[in-house]
Design a protein that fits this description.
Shape: globular
Radius of gyration: 20 Å
Largest sheet: 7 strands, mixed
Helix content: 25-40%
Distance between the termini: 14 Å
Number of strands: 13
Strand content: 15-25%
């Protein structure tokens, strides 16, 4: 088991990674002094460990369509009916959507109640559960309403990964692949548990340096500007990690077009993404007529990227460069358009979960 500390000025917690760590939930709840717990789970009841206290188990549903303010409101209503107080605890058990929604509900209920995350997908273990960002979507875009609310503990039980279908493992590898370009070593040859630990350790150090996204933390959004646009444009047919993978390839091409990196580094973006079995092409064009923001044509994608929450003025991306990844504002629209036009395209059906990540296949089968 690995335990990675995350230490902030006024809050500290540990991320525990390994087989069976979910069974320490009752110990964690006991340390918090909570008398009651609400567990919100997108997984079967038998996946949920004992909390050691009086518990309300609420079903949840993973997937972007459940990532709404309406879901948060329904959860908070259940908290009230159960009699949850500020001295109690909320526990999430599920993938990235459940982690985000439950985290935001915990942040808002009574202006903040302790939350513990039990991420059950690879994506949630390497990213969503760590760092305290919570958010839900609006019809206009991804993660536009949220709050910073750090968990009290994160239990990344790798036994959960043995239950995942290949495409859900692939979804998580989109976030691991982008770590290659924001300061992680080459993780491709490592077993999944070590890949998770390395990704979490990198994120923890970045969050410690910049909890509220005022500078360094922006680099965690590598590949996400186009990635979020592709999720929205495809009606979430492209999963988050798949879309981020395509966004990572695009980020490399855009950095090359701006003269920030050389052709070898541009090619490295494509090669790393493909090595995990992830898509590296844009979906075939749909809905590119004027004003349409739901298609995958170049114009529609540019319009969607203008809604990105990092953008203050103009188009904004996290891009590789001589000093490493950094936020680049006011990127000329004509350059963005040209790079999008030059990217290969493929039918959407060919991009979604076409291959299991090579690095995970044998270890996943043994889990």
């Amino acid at each position: 088991m690995a335990s990675i500390p995350l230490r902030l000025r006024d809050h500290a917690y540990d991320i525990h990674i390994g087989p069976g760590v979910r069974r320490s939930l009752a110990e964690v709840v006991g340390r918090l002094g909570a008398g009651r717990a609400v567990v919100v789970s997108a997984r079967p009841p038998e996946w949920v460990p004992d909390t050691g206290v009086e518990t309300l188990l609420l079903p949840a549903r993973d997937g972007e369509r459940a990532k709404t303010l309406g879901t948060v409101e329904r959860l908070c209503g259940e908290f009230v009916r159960f009699g949850l107080t500020r001295s109690d605890v909320v526990v999430s058990c599920g993938g990235g959507t459940t982690t985000d929604v439950v985290g935001l509900a915990a942040a808002l209920y009574h202006r903040g109640v302790a939350v513990v995350h039990l991420p059950t997908s690879l994506l949630a273990q390497v990213d969503a559960s760590v760092g305290g960002k919570t958010a839900v979507n609006l019809p206009e875009g991804k993660n536009l309403v949220g709050a910073y609310w750090q968990p009290s503990a994160v239990l990344c039980d790798t036994d959960y990964l043995s239950t995942l279908p290949p495409r859900e493992m692939l979804n998580g590898y989109g976030e691991i692949a982008r770590c290659h370009f924001i300061g992680a070593p080459d993780l491709r040859a490592l077993p999944p548990a070590e890949q998770i630990a390395a990704s979490v350790a990198l994120k923890a150090r970045i969050v410690e340096a910049d909890e509220r996204d005022t500078g360094l933390r922006h680099i965690l959004n590598y590949g996400h500007t186009l990635g979020h646009a592709l999720e929205k444009a495809t009606g979430f047919a492209l999963r988050h990690g798949e879309a981020v993978a395509v966004g990572t390839v695009f980020a490399g091409r855009l950095a090359g077009a701006l003269g920030r990196i050389d052709e070898a580094r541009v090619a490295e973006h494509r090669d790393v993404v493909r090595s995990y079995g992830l898509p590296a092409a844009l979906p075939a064009e749909t809905g590119n007529e004027t004003g349409n923001e739901t298609g995958t044509g170049t114009g529609a994608l540019v319009r969607l990227m203008r809604h990105d929450k990092k953008a203050v003025s103009g188009l904004t991306f996290v891009l590789d460069g001589p000093k490493g990844a950094e936020l680049v504002e006011d990127v000329p629209p004509e350059v963005v358009t040209r790079v999008l036009d030059e990217m290969p395209r493929a039918p959407l059906a060919d991009l979604v979960g076409a291959a299991a990540p090579v690095a995970a296949t044998s270890d996943t089968a043994r889990s």
